[in-house]
Design brief:
This protein is α+β, with helices and mostly antiparallel strands. It contains five helices and four strands, in the order αββαββααα. α1 runs parallel beside α2, α3 crosses α5 and α4 packs across α5. InterPro entries: CxC1 (IPR041320).
Length: 171
């Protein structure tokens, strides 16, 4: 299962999210001015099967239901709203991209400790009335989102660098 999930992330989801991620960075002035995203329109007519996903979003106050299908995957819809999913197909948790960017920056300056970060986050959310299903589920899901968000950032940088290098060579 983990190998299939890795393959889905690396070969399907991350490549499909590069252009929408660049658009999000452009439209939000590098995530400084987040705004309410418009829903992603369905272009397949639900041929791939439409299902409802209830996704808890780590940004202090969001939880919403997504209607996903072949042309509107959960990862794309969440990214357009400024969140990154913990799983490629049917995520149960999504994290605010600005929070992931903060944690990524924090972990560059101190030893990475997702367990301590998630314990603090769980305690913080618990104090505000959010109850999580199981102990340690936040750590696994948050760590997965952080890992694959880093992969998206790196893939995006690689695409932009390749584009710039190709443009430079043709000049």
């Amino acid at each position: 299962k983990k190998l299939r999930q890795w393959s889905t992330w690396a070969n399907q989801v991350i490549p499909d999210l590069i252009d929408p991620y660049l658009e999000l960075l452009r439209s939000t002035c590098n995530l400084a001015q987040m705004c309410q995203a418009a829903p992603v329109p369905c272009a397949c007519g639900g041929r791939g099967g439409t299902k409802a996903l209830n996704v808890l979003c780590v940004d202090y106050n969001s939880e919403f239901e997504l209607s996903v299908c072949a042309c509107r995957p959960a990862a794309l819809q969440l990214l357009r709203r400024g969140f990154f999913p913990c799983a490629p197909i049917a995520p149960s948790l999504a994290v605010d991209i600005r929070m992931l960017e903060f944690v990524k920056t924090l972990f560059v300056r101190m030893p990475p400790n997702a367990t301590a970060w998630c314990d603090a986050l769980e305690s913080f959310l618990d104090g505000r009335g959010y109850k999580l299903d199981t102990r340690d589920s936040m750590r696994r899901r948050f760590s997965n989102a952080l890992l694959w968000y880093g992969s998206l950032v790196n893939a995006t940088k690689s695409v932009v660098t390749t584009y710039l290098e190709e443009s430079r060579v043709t000049l």
